[in-house]
Amino acid sequence: xxxxxxxxxxxxxxxxxxxxxxxxxxxxxxxxxxxxxxxxxxxxxxxxxxxxxxxxxxxxxxxxxxxxxxxxxxxxxxxxxxxxxxxxxxxxxxxxxxxxxxxxxxxxxxxxxxxxxxxxxxxxxxxxxxxxxxxxxxxxxxxxxxxxxxxxxxxx
Length: 156
Hints:
This protein is an alpha+beta fold.
């Protein structure tokens, strides 16, 4: 974790699990996983990562900020597409190594593929070997329009 983190260093298991101090347990790359769900429906929209700066900016601004592992850069959700996420609640898990945010999703969707959720395919259960994914959601916006010049990227 970067030395300039505004958060307390992770403490004992008791402090992490029962304490009232936010002390995120960042991984070796300085990241925590973040699950974003729709505040109204409860649908999972996306899973991303936050570094200390993204977590601090999300807390301070009430807007979702993430850290892109592929681009090695901080990004505000919607800064390119306009599909922003306003955070209405934030929770941290029992050992403080994962964050859950409930968001109001602006725009048609959260996924850079043009769908509302990044979880648009189902994996059929009870089958051995290779399985065929089942598409459950159609595109709700054109990703080429939302992310001009960023084909194949995990868009902001």
